[in-house]
Design goal:
It contains 12 helices and 14 strands. The protein has 372 residues and is α/β, with parallel strands linked by helices. Among the domains are: 125 residues, Rossmann fold; 131 residues, Dihydrodipicolinate Reductase, domain 2. The strands form 2 sheets. It has a 9-stranded mixed beta sheet. It has a 5-stranded parallel beta sheet with strand order 2-1-3-4-5, with helices on both faces. Helix 1 crosses helix 11 and helix 5 packs antiparallel against helix 12. The chain is globular. It starts with a strand and ends with a strand.
C-alpha cells in the first residue's frame, strides 16, 4: 500500500485539546490523512468540527455507528479510527470499530476500568486487527535512546527509578471542558490524576527500563475539597529485578506545567531526561564523567535517529513525538514491524496499575502485588 492511509476520528469535537493534536500528528509525515469523523455525540457540534478540520461535510457523522456504516459503503473508506474521546467512551468506540473490521489507535488510558481493558483485550485478540495506544512520551527520540542504552548495559544493572509528573492546573476549581471530565468518575473512570498523568509516568518507567513493576505501595489523595477523584499521588515501586522506584504525580502543584521527567540509576551510571527540555539526555558514569546526548546528534542509535526529523540544535517536541507513534501505527497497518508502539500489553499493565494503586491506597493495604 503506497497511498496515504485514511483516518476516521472518534471524539475531538469543539473545545477538544487532544483532537487537533492527533490530527496534526497523524498528518505530519504524509502517511495519513484525516477524512472522516464522529467528532461529537451532538450532530451539530460534529458538523462544526468537520468544518474546522476541513473534511467533506458528508463525512462528519452524527454517531460512531453512522460513521462506520457510511465509510463501509464508500470505495475509499477509512483504514482505521483514532479514539480521542474521554475515557468512558474508549471501550464502546473501540468495540464498534473492531466489530466493523477497523483497526484502532486509541488515546490513553486504554479504558475507564481494568475490567473494560480485559474485555477489550479479548476483542482485539478475536478480531486479529492492529491496536495501538498513544502513550506520547514513548515517541520522543531521546526516550527511545535511553531505552536502547539501558538495554545495552550503559548504566549497568538498574537499581533505582524515579519518575515524576507534576502539574498545577487543577489546584483550584476544575473549570472548563478539559478539567470537568477529568474529575468526574462517570467519565474519567477509577482514577483522577493517577489515570490522567500518573499512568504516563508508570508506562514511561517500564518502557525506558525494560523492567516490569511487580509490587507497589500507593498513597493517593483528593486534596481539593469536594473532589471525588485523586489529584495528588505518591507510589513506591518494586521492579522485577529487585530495583526500587518512586512515582510522583500531582495536578495541584501550583506553578508546575507539564514537568514529566525520569532519573534512572544503575550500578555503573545514571540517566536523566525531562519532557520540558526534551532535546537533551544526560548520561552520568561512575567515574564522574557526564555525557550530554543531543536530539538529532550523531551519537544516537538507529531507532532514535530514525525518529528524528531535523538536525541537532533544531528542537523537536510533543507534536513530533506524537507523530512518531502515528508513523509506527502506519507501519503496522502496512504490514511492517513497529515493536516500540504501545499496545494491548501496555494498556493492560497500565490499567492494572491504576486499579491496584486506587484500591491499595483506599484500603491502606501497604505493599501489594501488581497483577493483571
Amino acid at each position: 500500500m503506497t497511498r496515504r492511509l485514511r483516518m476516521g476520528m472518534i471524539g475531538g469535537g469543539p473545545g477538544s485539546f487532544i483532537g487537533p493534536i492527533h490530527r496534526i500528528a497523524a498528518e505530519m509525515d504524509r502517511e495519513i490523512e484525516l477524512v472522516a469523523g464522529a467528532f461529537s455525540s451532538d450532530p451539530v457540534r460534529s458538523a462544526a468540527a468537520g468544518q474546522t478540520y476541513r473534511i467533506d461535510p458528508a463525512r462528519a457523522y452524527a454517531s460512531v455507528d453512522a460513521m462506520l456504516a457510511g465509510e463501509a459503503a464508500r470505495d475509499e473508506g477509512i483504514d482505521f479510527v483514532a479514539v480521542v474521546s474521554p475515557n468512558h467512551h474508549h471501550l464502546p468506540a473501540a468495540r464498534a470499530a473492531l466489530a466493523a473490521g477497523i483497526p484502532v489507535l486509541s488515546d490513553k488510558p486504554m479504558t475507564a476500568t481494568l475490567a473494560e481493558a480485559q474485555e477489550l483485550a479479548g476483542l482485539v485478540a478475536a478480531a486479529g486487527l492492529p491496536y495501538g495506544l498513544t502513550y506520547t512520551y514513548s515517541g520522543y527520540p531521546l526516550v527511545r535512546e535511553a531505552r536502547a542504552r539501558i538495554a545495552a548495559g550503559a548504566i549497568g544493572t538498574v537499581r533505582k527509578v524515579v519518575v515524576e509528573y507534576p502539574q498545577g492546573w487543577l489546584a483550584g476549581e476544575a473549570a472548563g471542558k478539559q478539567a470537568e471530565w477529568r474529575v468526574d468518575p462517570a467519565r474519567a473512570g477509577l482514577g483522577g490524576c493517577i489515570g490522567d498523568i500518573g499512568v504516563h509516568a508508570f508506562q514511561l518507567a517500564e518502557f525506558v527500563t525494560g523492567l516490569a513493576v511487580t509490587e507497589l505501595l500507593a498513597d493517593l489523595g483528593a486534596v481539593v475539597p469536594g473532589r471525588q477523584l485523586d489529584d495528588d499521588c505518591t507510589v513506591l515501586l518494586r521492579f522485577a529485578n529487585g530495583a526500587r522506584g518512586v512515582l510522583l504525580a500531582s495536578q495541584i502543584e501550583v506553578g508546575e506545567r507539564n514537568g514529566l521527567r525520569f532519573r534512572i540509576y544503575g550500578d555503573k551510571g545514571g540517566m536523566a531526561w525531562a519532557q520540558e527540555r526534551p532535546n537533551t539526555l544526560t548520561v552520568n558514569t561512575a567515574d564522574g564523567r557526564s555525557e550530554i546526548v543531543h536530539a538529532g546528534g550523531s551519537q544516537l542509535g538507529p531507532d532514535a535517529a530514525a525518529r528524528s526529523r531535523t538536525p541537532t540544535g533544531h528542537p523537536e517536541g510533543y507534536l513530533e513525538a506524537f507523530a512518531n507513534l502515528y508513523r509506527d501505527f502506519a507501519a503496522q497497518l502496512r504490514g511492517e514491524a513497529a515493536p516500540l508502539l504501545p499496545g494491548i500489553a501496555d494498556g493492560l499493565r497500565s490499567m492494572a496499575f491504576i486499579a491496584t494503586a486506587v484500591s491499595a491506597s483506599r484500603d491502606r493495604a501497604g505493599w501489594v502485588a501488581l497483577d493483571i
